[in-house]
Amino acid sequence: MCSSDLATDGFGGGLDWEASTTGTLSISACTVTQNTTADGDGGGLVVTNGSGGLASVTITNSTFSSNQPGRAGGASPVGGGIFQGVLVSLGLTNTNVASNLVTGSGGAGQGGGIFGFGQSGEVMTLTGCTISSNQAPSDGGGVKAGTRIVVDSSTFSGNSTGTLGGGINHNQNNATASSITKRSEEHTSELQSPCNLVCRLLLEKK
After folding, report:
1. Torsional class of 36: left (φ above 0), alpha (ψ -120 to 50), beta (otherwise)
2. How far apart are the first and last CA of the chain?
3. 77-135 pLDDT per residue, tens
4. Contact 17, 26 (CB under 8 A)
5. Distance CA 102, CA 141 (A)
6. Sign of dihedral through CA atoms 12, 15, 21, 26?
7. Fewest C-beta in 10 Å: which of 114, 135, 164, 196?
8. Is residue 163's pLDDT more than 70?
9. Cβ(92)–Cβ(59) below 8 Å
10. Which of 121, 45, 43 is nearest to 88 (CA)?
11. CA-based nearest residue to 176, from 155, 205, 147, 134
12. Do the beta carbons of residue 138 and residue 115 sit within 8 Å?
């Protein structure tokens, strides 16, 4: 069991992990809560890979809650709970991402719960997860995904955004979704993707 309640002036309020090519990180049964950054993305967790290859991060039975990144000089951070960098695949199973907050204004304040920064080959997978009550001033109140995204048996509830995708904003043409439960999100494009797979075919409104 692990927990955190930290503040940092860099990236990753709770944990900042660099893969160094094909590294792997596993997090299980952890609570990452009430972490902040003064000038960096990822209020709870940052996973990056600046050395090539494709790294892998798996998170199971964990909670990321009430984390808040900040940026100096009035800029807007991204990734309230989790920031997924390029060349890192991220898989969450039976994990709650709740009440994380990105503040500020403009196009950079994205991904209240999770921000995925896609480039080539990365995947974000959410299985049996609950993404709830996260906020961002711009796209993706719950999740902002530039990666390929796979969502299975997950719930999006009460997330809010100032622009597109209260639950999910996905800006690539490769998404797979099944068994999504969507409750009210504070934007008309609750689960939004250009491939329309998420928002038209597999969205059950309850």
Report:
1. beta
2. 34
3. 999 999 999 999 999 999 999 999 998 765 578 999 999 987 777 899 999 999 999 99
4. no
5. 9
6. negative
7. 196
8. yes
9. yes
10. 121
11. 147
12. no
The first and second tokens of residue 67, run together, are 């984390």
Query: In residues, how long is the chain?
Result: 206
Residues 6+ apart with CB under 8 A from 166: 141, 142, 159, 160, 185, 186, 187, 189, 190
Tokens linked to 197: 């797979």
Distance of alpha carbon 8 from alpha carbon 39, whole angstroms: 8
Q: How far apart are CA 55 and CA 132, in angstroms?
A: 27
Q: What is the 3 state secondary structure string of the chain?
A: CEEECCEECCCCCCEEEECCCCCEEEEECEEEECCEECCECCCCEEEECCCCCCEEEEEECCEEECCECECHHHCCCCCCCEEECCCEEEEEECCEEECCECCCCCCCCCCCCEEECCCCCCEEEEECCEEECCEECCCCCCEEECCEEEEEEEEEECCEECCCCCCEEECCCCEEEEEEEECCCECCCCEECCCCHHHHHCEEEC
Per-residue pLDDT tens over the stretch 11-46: 889 999 999 888 999 999 999 999 999 899 999 999
User: Could you identify the residue written with the tokens 């009460």?
Assistant: 158
- Joined tokens for residue 111: 């991904």
Residue 55 CA to residue 75 CA, distance in Å, equals: 29
> What residues does 168 pair with on adjacent strands?
143, 191
Give residue 197's pLDDT.
Answer: 36
